[in-house]
Amino acid sequence: MINLTVNGEARSHEGDPSMPLLWYLRDTLGLTGAKYGCGVGLCGACTVHLEGEAVQSCLITLADASDKAVVTIEGLDPAGEHPVQQAWRTLNVPQCGFCQTGQIMQAAALVAMNPAADDGEITEAMSGNICRCGCYQRIHAAVRQVVEGA
Amino acid sequence: MLGYLNQDLSARARAGTSEVHGTSAPLAALSGSLEKIDRRRFLQLTGLAGAFAVALRVLPAEAMQTYPTGGDAMPHGTVADPHVFVAIAEDGTVTIVAHRAEMGTGSRTSLPMVVADEMEADWSRVKVVQAPGDEPRYGNQDTDGSRSLRHFLQPMRQCGAAMRTMLEAAAAEEWGVDPGQVKAENHEVVHLGDSSRRLGYGALAKAAMAHPVPALDSLAFKEEADFRYIGKGEVGMVDLHDITTGKAVYGADVQLPGMKYAVVARPPVVGGTVKSFDAAQTLQVPGVSGVVEIEGSLPPAKFAPLGGIAVVADNTWTALQGREALQIEWDDGPHGGYDSAAFRAEMSETAKRPGKPLRKQGDPDATFAAAARVVSAEYYQPHMIHTPMEPPVAVAHVTADKAEVWAPVQSPYGTREDLAALLHLPIEAVTVHVTLLGGGFGRKSKCDYVLEAALVSKAVGAPVKLQWSREDDVRHGFYHTASVERIEAALDAEDRVTGWRHRSVAPSILSTFAPDSGYQFPIEQGMGLVDMPFDIANIACENGQAMAHTRIGWFRAVSNVPRAFAVQSFVGELAHELGRDPKDMLLELIGPARVINPKAAGMPEDFWNYGEPYEEFPIDTGRLRGVVELAAEKAGWGRSLPEGEGLGIAAHRSFVSYVATVVRVKVSADGAISVPEVHTAIDCGFCANPERVESQIQGAAVMGMTLALHSAITYAEGRVEQSNFFDYEMAGMSSYPEKVGVHIVPQPFSVHASGVGEPGVPPFAPALGNAIFAATGKRLRDLPFGATVD
Fold this sequence. Notes:
Chain A is built from 6 helices and 5 strands. By secondary structure, chain A is α+β, with helices and mostly antiparallel strands.
């Protein structure tokens, strides 16, 4: 039995401990904000917070998440008004939007840990998140807006 | 011949199903497959009479706000009926239907916004709902070809104007005054004589909807100056909040009670089949509930599944584990020998010989024979795959007498037709709900993944979510064609370009739909080959034969990508050869501002102008010159740059829009390529939502960068050699073009809205190649370039 908390709620899992957190969140809990994009940690669409750190949930097994706190996009801010979410909306960042929850979770972890991140640090922190529509210019600008507004 | 061809196709398209019940009535097969072929994607060759009439229509001063587009010739045409698209609740909430799929272009916002503006609705009180696949009701829903705004801007204005007129008529009736005495204004109707008399849209809804829909010629349209939302770019995407909070529902996010999860092991070679399989270990994986064999198909099979073994389980992870445990012996079929390197060499040989003549202007043979010298070059683009961030996925619930699917599809009604044919159900028994698309780029126009989900659901008697892994997406898609483009220019003794010969050799998309002739069809010919707009006296465009060995499909901008790469790189080569400035050379080749007469230019009788009536959307070199000048000016063309940097320019007309891109490249001492700055100018006619146009063009630069540096799908022994983002790389945050300036040519409504989603892509790679040449003196003729210049 694996115990963990997801968005503040206690959860327990009795099945395969090697199941990636991503599929547990999506298929078992119905939290579909974290997306499947590659399954091997190359695209960042599945990014969530594990103990406050941005991780790719396709690479984290439930065993890895045991007794830990997971926050998904659904739990980032109760009203959806996290500064990163607001900046995303102000700058109309998304196109198709599919990768954006992962981008936002990555950015939220960055600004929490490094509230004064410079351009290079933003680039580095966001470089594991692919956007096939190509919204990088606006993603970068949105993160910078959060940093400058902090 | 056509009847035979289509019957054959129809049978093959059905061959992917697990059961074929006898033979269908020939007539039904014919009409069904005609729909599949001609109606879905193909030019109706017979509808082209008059395509060569080159008279620019002079619009009356009051501009009737209506003009013919190719939308009328698309399956089910266009619909502008407010009863179809608009509902008004008693509380005043206006619900507007979005009937085109949303994959990131913003059409789900822009088209309802047009209705809202023209009907004087307050956008904050508008709700948008997504239409299911139902073209007889909504008009064409094929969301591809950069057509949503191009074909539906005017019908949506008409719809909004009709709704406004009906609301005004209802208020006039209520007050017993002449309709001329009332005016709709921001969600209410006002009595002009007595502005204290106002009725909200909610109060008027019932009476308004009972009014007949006014005829087009009785409608008054808003003046452009009175638009609230159209042309402003200030309306955020309708899904913006949901996207940023994880509530937006993509195909992958649909969940149904009792739903099973499935993945499929597909033959590694297109046309391969399961020789034998052993699922014993799979069935031992806890949570796996069964396996389903899906029959395969050999092209031309349209969108029929590739076949294979589906593993059904309690969740996606378990299904993937079960698939790992499958033992399958494959028969590779006829394409097991496909080797893309050898194929490239074959295409290159073919391009050295005369091909099938498509366009002949003047006397190219004599011109080349008499030339003082000939400059020639060959360009290559390998296969590419779309890799939308959401891999193909669909949820299906099929029972004995009906089918319901939820899927990210670009062509929901085509999907519905294919489902009905596959499952032998009447079309009324099939429902296709359209979710948001996590990217499309042409991949999600092909509904094979939905058909797979339906077959598995039917077999297991439960709702099924069928998920493609990224590896599945990379290895089992519909690939952008591989092509060799060879261009030769004849120069006279004074170094004037007197002749142009372009030979294109590439497997055709047609091979997915019909027995393969190895030759391209008018749609491919029209994308940057025969429509080449240069002012050269003698022109030959030819097509050499190349047989397809995989599933070929359309990818964002389609054949324009290799054509623009070849033609615009070659302009750079000519400039160098002749010691000219590349931008001056480009403008000189484009020649004076004029509307090209396709007939006089020797273009084919069946010249395809993106399905648009030529007289309404002609090739206008003045507009092409305009974007070249604008992009060059914004990029500071001609300025001196530091060592290792260079500017490159390219321009291309596609999807009846005009785009020019200037790339500034930086090549480091170790050869690493980076792009600090891009300026793209686009003339897409009247621009309903400039903010989304900007985002599309910014994104096109990123996709352009990815394909220019990285994108190659290669084959060995019939198998795709790539599998995921480590060997099929994407430009990312550390490598994207940093600053993309987008410059939209302002145009009034009378300059018809044209394509936006695709035309930004083609000019990027040649502009980058030309910039790299300017920076390093190295000419790159093979895509992809790789991340470094050797």
